[in-house]
Amino acid sequence: MTTFVLRRLAATVPLFLGATFVIWAMVFALPGDPIRALSGFRPQPPEINRALREQYNLNDPLVVQYLEYLENVVRLDFGSSFTGREVSDLLREAFPHTLRILLVAVAFTVIVGIGMGTVAAFRPHRMVDRWIMVVTALCVAVPAVVIAPLARAYLSVELEWFPSRGVTSGWTSYLLPGLILGLVATATTARILRNAHLEALQSDYARTAIAKGLPPRRVIGVHSMRNSLQPVVSFIGADIPLLLAATALVETVFDIPGVGRLLVLAARGQETPVVAGVVMFLVIVGILGSLVADIAAAALDPRRRIR
Hints:
Layout lengths: L1 H27 L5 H5 L7 H10 L6 H13 L12 H36 L4 H15 L2 H15 L13 H10 L1 H19 L2 H8 L4 H8 L1 H29 L5 H10 L3 H29 L7
Helix pairs in contact: 1-14, 5-6, 5-8, 5-9, 5-12, 6-9, 7-8, 7-12, 8-12, 9-12, 10-11, 12-13, 12-14, 13-14
């Protein structure tokens, strides 16, 4: 297991370098002049313009800027915004809100997704199974950009079941954004687990257990669950970066001061250091989440450790 973890850690290094360089290049290829945006597009003396560009290394070649920034990131220093605030401080204030939304989304995915997938496997090709497949297909088909404003307008504003904006209501403020964020992952988890259970029931060990008189529920709930959870764990780990990216939508709709909303506001204001720092932070969190999922999947199936 130690060798497997070390191999996975080594594999994340080129992934991190490649992803961060592409993101850095894309961020600084955005149109517009951040120094002009900082001054509200008002004329300013040339010497101040030159000093600001020198301060933020905007005159250096792209590769040099990236290497300088990467050296700071290793020290967990994501630079400072054009207004003088440290990006690390902005992330420290915003990430707890995003983390709460992610926890709600992952909990919803694990509890409801695994429950629906297991129930569907109990009665394959029956009415319950067909309804679950229809509902999950609809959840996957309808994008969050449509669901989020509709859910806020109906469930929060009209019915008043959830807070409509802000974080003044404690954990209740994060419930509806988290549920919307985890909706697609929940539906996909249910479908993956249902298919994994049905495949496991065709294996020799499952047929032997059934031949010995064990009911299908026990075979599914006990014997096939360990193997069937492996693709689910891998999927959730791979889906973490997508969940982090989708937080920008739900946090903007529900006015939650998280990392996603911070990214949107920084992009609007052409705060390239903040955009680069936030995206870099999200990449690091996404890579670590995928790494943890790989380790968890290897713990469930020792055969994965030799790959």
